């Protein structure tokens, strides 16, 4: 072997200007979804032309470069990741990083609609945990929130995931006057089946029809209401994401709180997000981004890609500044959650 061919096995980790090591990459593999949740998308979304998307091989290449630079956790998201054609090819190929020990976790966030079909294959690819987004257990309300989703199909998907041995966490966005009366019911149901529940505050991402001020429900209120009936003990459990957990003494289960609006969690942010067109967002709540598609298409060698990644991380901001208030009519960030991936 020539000395020039020698590539060191360990590459320097990606560390941002605030000393935060980037160890978690979320990848949105499509901006399309089979639901249109009212807080997430407008009813008449325009989706990207398919030719603008990274191929799954290109997604794998970028993910692999991040793994080589210290990413230990990959989350596949969207849009709805399981509606992307041939998506299992990506899971299959990324699972080699689990087998090699380079990656601690390969996981996904899904609306559950396709889990019945894919749960066993996901488990076979080394996926151990899956986050399923579910805001209500009432079929009519579910149809209203998702604009046409079928709750039964999602529940069957969750069952299939559990049967395949996947650990399921339920993610629910807390929505004022919509599901705030159901949080306790969701918790009892989830904990009864051994699933944890994470609650999320609605974030001002993208233009949608109803005003977000009408949907926003601070989780401090939800927590206080739960404390009227339950004993919540702070729990050190972490998944590498932004949720902070309590264990409910009466049920034995965990409830996570993701509170970007009422409590900023940016100081420990270890994440960056890749969109399906190869744009890297260094923060969910800021517009600044880096194009990784051009460097991968410019060369089969990863030198340009690494250079673009390094440059992007120098621009990772300290944090977001989400605000939902009546004086600010526009969302903090123009793109919808389905673009950056939740
Ligand atoms: N389709 C998948 C799903 O439903 O989980 C993955 C993508 S979805 C955008 C990821 C998560 O973001 C979901 O839990 C969804 O409820 C949440 N979400 C979407 N828009 C949001 C917003 N504006 N504020 C807070 N959470 C949001």
The general outline is globular
Please state how the strands of the largest beta sheet are arranged side by side.
Answer: 7-8-9-6-5-4-3-2-1-10-11-12
Q: What is the number of E strands? A: 12
Low-confidence stretches: none
Helix content: 25-40%
Main pleated sheet: 12 strands, mixed
Order of helices and strands: EHEHEHEHHEHEHEEEEEEHHH
Number of helices: 10
Based on CA atoms alone, the radius of gyration comes out at 20 Å
**Bound molecule types:** S-adenosylmethionine
Q: What proportion strand? A: 15-25%
Instruction: Output mean pLDDT.
Output: 91
Look at the helices and sheets and give the structural class: alpha/beta
* Cα end-to-end separation: 44 Å
Q: Identify the quaternary structure here.
A: single chain
């Amino acid at each position: 072997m020539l000395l020039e061919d020698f590539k060191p096995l360990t590459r320097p980790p990606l560390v941002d200007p605030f000393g935060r090591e980037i160890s978690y990459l979320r990848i949105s593999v499509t901006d399309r979804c089979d639901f249109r949740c009212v807080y997430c998308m407008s009813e008449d979304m325009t989706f990207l032309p398919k030719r603008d998307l990274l191929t799954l091989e290109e997604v794998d290449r970028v993910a692999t470069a991040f793994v080589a630079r210290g990413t230990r956790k990959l989350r596949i998201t969207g849009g709805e990741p399981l509606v992307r054609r041939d998506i299992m090819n990506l899971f299959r190929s990324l699972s080699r990083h689990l087998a090699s020990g380079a990656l601690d976790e390969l996981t996904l966030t899904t609306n559950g609609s396709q889990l019945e079909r894919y749960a066993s294959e996901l488990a076979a690819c080394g996926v151990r945990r899956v986050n399923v987004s579910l805001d209500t257990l009432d079929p009519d309300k579910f149809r209203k929130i998702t604009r046409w989703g079928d709750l039964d199909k999602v529940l069957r998907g969750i069952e299939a995931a559990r049967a395949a041995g996947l650990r399921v966490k339920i993610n629910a966005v807390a929505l004022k006057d919509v599901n705030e009366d159901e949080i306790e019911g969701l918790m009892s149901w989830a904990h009864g089946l051994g699933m944890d529940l994470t609650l999320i505050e609605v974030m001002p991402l993208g233009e949608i029809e109803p005003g977000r001020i009408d949907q926003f429900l601070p989780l401090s209120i939800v927590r206080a209401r739960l404390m009227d009936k339950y004993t919540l003990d702070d729990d050190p459990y972490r998944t590498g994401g932004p949720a902070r957990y309590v264990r409910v003494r009466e049920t034995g289960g965990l409830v996570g709180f993701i509170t970007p609006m009422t409590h900023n969690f940016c100081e420990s942010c270890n994440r960056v997000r890749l969109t399906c067109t190869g744009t890297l967002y260094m923060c969910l709540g800021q517009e600044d981004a880096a194009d990784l598609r051009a460097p991968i298409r410019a060369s089969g060698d990863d030198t340009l890609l690494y250079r673009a990644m390094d440059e992007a991380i120098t621009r990772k901001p300290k944090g977001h500044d989400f605000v939902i208030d009546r004086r600010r009519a526009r969302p903090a960030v123009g793109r919808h959650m389905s673009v950056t991936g939740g």
